[in-house]
Design brief:
Layout lengths: L5 H6 L7 E5 L2 E5 L9 E5 L14 H19 L3 E5 L15 E6 L16 H15 L1
């Protein structure tokens, strides 16, 4: 629990929300400004800032929540697809510093475009970066 965290306050019931799921260490509610209607946020109860602060031990119940809520969002909204997204750090668009996953229901031709993609300068540049990432993994 962090005193100045809006998601901690929502989870504790101090700020109202449209709750859709509450099981074990995971809580979910509708995003107040949805990308598409039914856009839900799946949030570990404990206050951790980013993906990198979450324990791998949480993996099972987190994946269960993402699948359960995701399927229910699709069913209730009649969506044909679902995007799962997570912003980590401000440079990636994270506004609320309590780790959370966005579940965005998608409809054919809804016009949303998540990001634009680019080409590498060369295959060598791509391979060099893959090498650096593998080295960082260790
Ligand atoms: P992010 O940019 O990944 O940190 O996303 C934070 C999300 O929280 C945004 O999509 C907001 O619309 C949403 N949000 C902020 N305050 C509330 C609230 N009181 N209830 C529901 N969703 C909220
Ligand atoms: Zn919090």
């Amino acid at each position: 629990m962090s005193d100045d965290c809006i998601f901690c306050k929502i989870i504790e019931g101090k700020i109202p929300c449209a709750k859709v799921y509450d099981a074990g260490g995971i809580f979910a509610f509708l995003d107040i400004a949805p990308v598409n209607k039914g856009h839900a946020l799946v949030v570990p109860r404990a206050h951790h800032a980013t993906l990198f602060d979450l324990s791998p031990d949480m993996g099972r119940e987190l994946l269960t929540a993402l699948k359960t809520v995701g399927q229910a969002v699709m069913q209730a909204t009649g969506a044909a697809g679902l995007n799962v997204g997570m912003n980590n750090y401000e440079a990636a668009g994270q506004l609320v510093h309590h780790a959370h996953f966005h579940l965005v229901p998608r409809h054919a031709g809804d016009g949303l475009s998540l990001w634009t993609q680019h080409a590498y300068e060369s295959t060598e540049e791509m391979q060099k970066l893959a090498k650096a990432i593998k080295a960082a993994i260790g």
